[in-house]
Design goal:
With 379 residues, the protein is of the alpha+beta class. Helices cover 51% and strands 16% of the residues.
């Protein structure tokens, strides 16, 4: 398969690279320590069309393809993986509205998303992580409204000052299990919807992750995406694209770790010669680079498969699994090559190491990805 980027894709990649270098690199360490992303960063992402990168042009978006999304997220992740996560989750949530939303929903939420309003996606619960079928959050019909009760946890893009609306997966008919789940848009500030605990995380510290609490929260049934009972299917479709996004984040972390390692190996002298002359460390670098290029190829194939509207569950799971595990491997080797310096916060490697570690966990653990791959192969 030919992975030669188009002129448009190269232009978008260069735009994202320039933005990351100028806007994110100077602030990445500060954002990591403060635990937040300045809203001006989100505003600037919206100004250059990235907050609406997948939003059709008629709703104020850029209308670009999944390959462009992957390129943007990976370039942002090279300088700030937290910002890359925000964009990945945001685009995953609005993908559900693009795919099955009503015209009214598209006019309201897609346009807002393109202008910088941040979308979240809520599936995980305290007792329902990898086993999404164990979800308990209820949405009970009452006239032309739903009354929602329940708690979601580890939800990205929602914090004390972050997040504007969430695509919520809730049970509208518990007797049907996953076939009784529905997808409902809930606006921040809706009575009965509150932000609970905001998590203090090991990595991706600038991106808000919080608990969402629903207590007799009333939402119009007009906010339901698709039909009742389609929620689990909507979530799984959204996760195909979301996994490509998170794989792209992992790719950006790996690229950045390799770049930092190459520079360090050329500059650091031990035993009378640069580290770059030591064969053992050259072999580390060869492994790091080969695995990262393999991850890139899987991501491009998965993104292209989605763009061609072909079944993508297997390739999306493969790229997320491989790229996530590779980011941890590369960051670990990079830190080892940097030695004691890599462990210190003066160098960005320790942040990359912390940021990489979450990717094999969220949007489906590596173990879940392997289950999905095996299931698809055995069909």
């Amino acid at each position: 398969m030919n992975f030669q980027l188009t002129e448009t894709q190269e232009m978008i990649q260069n735009l994202a690279r320039d933005f990351a270098e100028k806007e994110l690199a100077p602030l990445a360490s500060v954002m990591d320590k403060s635990g937040s992303i300045p809203h001006v960063i989100i505003e600037k992402l919206a100004e250059i069309g990235f907050m609406g990168i997948n939003v059709p042009e008629e709703y104020g978006g850029s209308g670009l393809d999944m390959v462009c999304k992957a390129l943007v997220i990976s370039e942002l992740a090279k300088k700030c993986a937290s910002t890359a996560e925000v964009l990945s989750v945001h685009t995953m949530a609005i993908d559900a509205i693009i795919r099955l939303g009503t015209e009214e929903q598209k006019q309201k939420y897609l346009s807002a998303a393109a202008q910088g309003k941040i979308a979240a996606f809520a599936l995980t619960e305290p007792g329902a992580g990898s086993d999404a079928s164990a979800a308990k959050t209820r949405a009970v019909a009452d006239g032309d409204e739903y009354v929602i009760n329940g708690t979601k946890c580890f939800i990205s893009n929602m914090g004390p000052d972050e997040g504007d609306f969430v695509v919520l997966i809730a049970l509208t008919d518990p007797s049907k299990g996953t076939r009784g789940m529905s997808a409902i848009i809930v606006d921040r500030g809706t009575p009965g919807f509150t932000i609970g605990k905001t998590e203090d995380k090991m990595g991706i510290r600038a991106a808000a992750v919080s608990e969402l609490v629903f207590e007799d929260c009333r939402v119009p049934q007009a906010n339901r995406i698709g039909e009742e009972g389609q929620g689990f299917k909507i979530a799984m479709q959204a996760l195909d694209g979301g996994r490509v996004g998170m794989a792209s984040q992992a790719l950006g972390i790996a690229d950045a770790a390799i770049e930092a390692t190459v520079n360090y190996m050329k500059e650091r002298v031990q035993f009378g010669q640069p580290l770059a002359k030591l064969q053992g460390l050259q072999w580390y670098l060869a492994d790091m680079t080969t695995r990262t290029e393999a991850a890139r190829a899987l991501i491009y194939e998965a993104a292209d498969t989605l763009d061609r509207h072909l079944p993508a569950t297997k390739i999306a799971a493969m790229c997320k699994y491989f790229a996530a595990e590779n980011a941890v491997y590369v960051a670990n080797k990079a830190l080892q090559i940097h030695g004691g310096y890599g462990y210190m916060t003066d160098y960005p490697i320790e942040r990359m190491y912390r940021d990489a570690r979450i990717v094999p966990i969220y949007e489906g653990t590596s173990e879940i990805q392997k289950n999905i791959i095996a299931r698809e192969v055995l069909k």
